[in-house]
Write a structure and sequence with these properties.
Length: about 55
């Protein structure tokens, strides 16, 4: 049995800050918990994904 699509999709937000505050990060919501992604490559991938839609 598979979970409904709404539980398989992940919601994320790219948080952009002024350069002097720090680099951009991604806030990622998941079924079992939330994460903050800070690695430049991961943030870049999510940034591209959010601009493609």
């Amino acid at each position: 049995m598979h979970p409904p699509d709404r539980y398989r999709r992940r919601t994320f937000v790219v948080l952009s800050f002024p350069e002097h505050w720090g680099p951009d990060i991604v806030y990622l919501e998941g079924l079992t918990g939330n994460r903050l992604l800070e690695e430049t490559g991961e943030v870049h991938s999510y940034s591209r994904l959010s601009t493609d839609s």
